[in-house]
Design goal:
Radius of gyration: 28 Å
Number of domains: 3
CATH class of the largest domain: Alpha Beta
CATH topology of the largest domain: Glutaredoxin
Structural class: alpha+beta
Helix content: 55-70%
Distance between the termini: 54 Å
Strand order of the largest sheet: 2-1-3-4
Strand content: 5-15%
Order of helices and strands: HHHHHHHHHHHHHEHHEEEH
């Protein structure tokens, strides 16, 4: 990744030049300067020495070699730290992140990773450090991904420290399940139509859907047929009759909508259930019988609420 666009724009503005003035100085069109600064194109390599002389900087400074080197260095740090975590050497991972913070002080990504490495230790002092790093990250301006990771981690760190009320309070500020990556990806992979999309948008806005909640059941190869063999449809029909739920889904409140799909991404003879709503499930099952029975048990619990 090159940083020419942002560097040229910053250098030009530091001089107080317009794009037209800069273009006239080096003999190119203003449109060329505009394209360079947007990153649509890059200056010809033969122009780099002239640009370096114009702004009295090195060619490396225009290209952004310092940022390129920093990006590569940080990537190596994260790779090494995660390798130690996978091998169970949490202390070594923490040492790598702590050392890196001396080079990149205030780096929120590093602080978040250091907090996670420290949190895997049972030492109260290290847990307190982990919580402090999380709090520093959350009080700053981290990326959206780091903020979400840190907000989730601090709940468990507080709980591990024995501060259960703080843990529960922190968890109460987490996003709803309906806004999670897993739930939304599952919806999108189901190829929703316009009605499904509007229903889910209403679900996000109000916390409820037109058809109550949904249970999505993804099956591996041949699992739909296997589940049918275990009378899932008949069991659902019997449960509807038992609790007086209507057969159609229009205005259905007592039971959620069931969507059963083949999913070739799952291993053969496995099922995955995800239920979106008050009762969140996300489970894998090794056989259709267990999956079918679990769906019925879940429906019964929802109907009793």
């Amino acid at each position: 990744m090159l940083f020419i666009a942002e560097n040229l724009k910053a250098l030009r503005k530091n001089r107080g030049w317009t794009q037209e003035e800069m273009a006239e100085t080096i003999g190119v069109s203003p449109q060329s300067i505009s394209k360079w600064e947007r990153g649509d194109t890059h200056p010809d390599i033969a122009l780099l020495p002239a640009l370096a002389n114009l702004f009295r900087v090195s060619i490396d400074a225009i290209i952004g070699m310092d940022k390129i080197n920093e990006t590569e260095a940080r990537a190596a740090i994260f790779k090494a730290g995660q390798a130690h975590l996978r091998n169970g050497d949490n202390a070594a991972a923490a040492d790598i992140y702590a050392s890196a913070l001396k080079t990149f002080p205030g780096d929120e990504d590093l602080m978040s990773e250091l907090a996670l490495a420290l949190s895997l230790d049972d030492d109260p002092a290290k847990l307190k450090q982990a919580a402090n790093y999380c709090e520093r990250v959350l009080s700053g301006n981290p990326s959206e991904k780091v903020r979400h990771t840190t907000r989730a981690a601090i709940c468990f760190i507080y709980f591990k420290m024995g501060e259960k009320e703080k843990a529960i309070a922190a968890a109460g500020n987490l996003p709803h399940a309906r806004e999670s990556r897993e739930n939304i990806l599952a919806e999108l992979r189901g190829e929703p139509d316009a009605n499904d999309i509007n229903s889910y948008l209403k679900f996000i806005a109000l916390g409820e859907s037109d058809n109550q909640d949904k249970i999505l059941v993804d099956f591996g190869i041949n699992m739909v047929e296997m589940c049918t063999e275990h009378d899932l449809a008949e069991k659902i029909k019997g449960l509807r009759a038992e609790i007086g739920a209507p057969e159609n889904h229009d205005g259905l409140r007592k039971l959620p909508h069931i969507r059963i799909r083949d999913n070739l991404a799952l291993p053969p003879n496995r099922a995955r259930i995800a239920h979106y709503g008050d009762l969140l499930l996300d489970k894998d099952f090794p056989n259709a019988k267990d999956a079918a029975n679990h769906i019925i048990a879940t429906l019964r619990k929802i109907a009793q609420k």
